[in-house]
Amino acid sequence: MSTPPSTNPSDDARTVPEPVVAPPLLPARVPIGAARVHPMSRDEAAQVVSAWAAERATALVVTPNVDHLVLLEQDETFRGAYDAARLQLCDGFPLLVLARLSGDRLPERVAGADLFLDVCERAAASGHRVFVAGGMPDVLQAGLAALRATFPELEITGHSPPVGFEGTPAEEDLRSRIAAEDPSIVMVCLGAPRAEIWAAAQSTRHPAVYLCVGAAIDFAAGTKKRAPSWMQRVGLEWLYRLAQEPVRLSQRYLVRDRAIVGIAARHLRSRRSARSRGGSEAAS
């Protein structure tokens, strides 16, 4: 896994990537359950987002994990938002394993929290304005302050809408703030499936690259901690987060996400059957 960018603002040795003018072509997607994942590295993903921002393109970026695969089977609106996504990146270690078991290749895990920092670093270098939608008010302000200290050239603002803001005047307030700031990149930190559903709808109103990055602003603020790198490498970050927030996450990880067993079994059967048919057709 790639090393996250330094969060030490005095680290003058950190190399700032050059802004990209033209986005590279996206690779063919890898099907995993109802997701269609692009086999890309962190650096490649950040490069594409930066290029889209330079074009003032409109795009939705999602980062599927196990919980997303389960929700995609249960929530048609969430699935519609995913289908509208221009870029899907593998955030879950089990998705890497599923891809390998089915004979597909994903270069590495691209966690939303890591992509958040990578994109902010490139935005600081290229002058792209960033807006963060979500997070509790105090957490949002702490996260923005930390990001400005880390990336002094970064133009970043944000707004914390109240819980259940969708369909209320608070949603129009958030949309008005985004329109006034006119960012080329919007980081959506509302949690799944709300983030993806809201971002898909919002992307039709204001041109920007919308990245659904979960608790990234909490990690930037330091109010939540990432798992140690060794736990991330072996796919145990979920266990670390469960230990941190057992009340909030036990229902998700220990109950709802057990459905991944059936999803994985169906996926492996489907991929093996497809490869078998392809081999038979090639032989005939």
From TrEMBL:
Segments of skewed composition (Polar residues): 1-10
Region (Disordered): 1-20
GO MF term (any one): hexosyltransferase activity
Family annotation (NCBIfam families): wecG_tagA_cpsF
Protein name (database record): Glycosyl transferase
Pfam families the record matches: Glyco_tran_WecG
Keywords, sorted A to Z: Glycosyltransferase, Transferase
